[in-house]
Design goal:
The protein is mainly α. Helices cover 52% and strands 8% of the residues. Helix 2 crosses helix 3. The longest helix is centred in the middle third of the chain and has 23 residues. The radius of gyration is 15 Å and the shape is flat.
């Protein structure tokens, strides 16, 4: 099972075969990606990213009492700007295999 979303790693932290991944990327990459997907101008895309990130981080801190940026909450952190989706999936799969989870 793959659980994606707010606090999934905290909710599932005690599962014996859990594996938690955080995807990150530089702001410039996020802006270009959101602008391309939505057709918005870069400044508009940046505003969307900042607002949604702030709302998500506030949710984590208020309701889950943890800092989502702290890497100790994850087994792996992957920079989206460095890996295509299929490459990231391969890295995650390899790590899970090496830990006997797959």
């Amino acid at each position: 099972v793959i659980i994606v979303g707010r606090g999934a790693n905290i909710i599932s932290k005690d599962l014996p075969k859990g594996f938690h991944v955080r995807l990150v990327a530089p702001m410039e990459w996020k802006i270009a990606r959101i602008a391309k997907i939505t057709g918005k101008k870069p400044k508009e895309a940046e505003k969307i990213i900042i607002e949604k990130s702030a709302a998500r981080d506030n949710f984590y801190r208020e309701y889950m009492k943890f800092d989502p940026a702290d890497p100790v909450h994850y087994d792996m952190v992957i920079n989206n700007a460095r890996y295509a989706s299929n490459e990231a999936a391969g890295v995650i799969e390899a790590a899970m295999i090496s830990r006997g989870l797959v």
